[in-house]
Amino acid sequence: MEPTKNSPKYFFLHLLAIIALYMSAAGLITLLFQYINVLFPDPLAYSNYNGIASAIRYAMASLIIIFPVYIFISRMLYREYLAEPEKREYRFRKWLVYFTLFAAGITIITDLIVLIYNFLGGDLSSRFILKILVVLLIAAVVFWYYRKDLKNALSVKQVGVLSYGASAFVLLAIIFGFFTAGSPLKARLYNFDERKVNDLTNIQYQIINYWQRKQILPNTLSDLTDSISGFTAPVDPQTNNAYEYNVNSQTSFELCAEFNLPSNFGLIGRSVNAYPAGAVNDNWDHAAGRVCFERTIDPALYPKINTVAPVVPVK
After folding, report:
1. Which of 245, 248, 242 is nearest to 256 (CA)?
2. If you count Cβ atoms within 10 Å of the first and of the last residue's Cβ in the chain, which end, N or C, has fewer?
3. pTM as predicted
């Protein structure tokens, strides 16, 4: 049996199982951390919908692929152990299990150190404590399971209960992600709206620059076309129609667009603290549907740009 125990097949199966375990644990921790960020917002922490939603989607994608691989490989190896118990003595397997116990133990110790350190520093927020508990719980479960497995102290029934229980928990975490980050359709609509705001911001900049140089507003967006700089007013990415532009007076204008979702579209109905106050211009807030943004140019803030090159006297 020695050649079988040391065959490349079991080497890579055990290695794949451990790597899948680490990646699954990291994905689950990331997912739960983002849920905590949404359910327990911290006024001192700045984040945005896109950042949180992207982290949730990446963690969901990782778990959807990696966790079933871990369960499948683990169950296959467990059946091998039942048929041939001596395969538990495979040396590389023991190295990987002991390393996993070591990593889980270090994680638990580090987790407790961070908890005490932040407690002494006055951080008593609910979200911080919950994140500590998440890491502690997952590391403790991994440590307990592999310590028992190393001693062959788990019955077939216990292994089955743990397998189905972990699978159910991960499945619920993934399902909750669709309610938190939104469906793929809503994500696409949100991306369209972000693109529209970026387009309007760019157009607004070009209009103001046009006014500073010519002291008049362009009659249409096509007046902004510049063959040298290569600028052409972008169009709505959903409809391919030009954005609506209206001149109200010599110094005021408005830009209009159709939006799919309100700008404060949040996670499961909760908004997030996107940036520190005053860090960004929030005048692109919008509701769903057709929204017009009125702008008035203050000549004191946007003075005329002298486009005539100074004449250098010839000596």
Report:
1. 245
2. C
3. 0.69
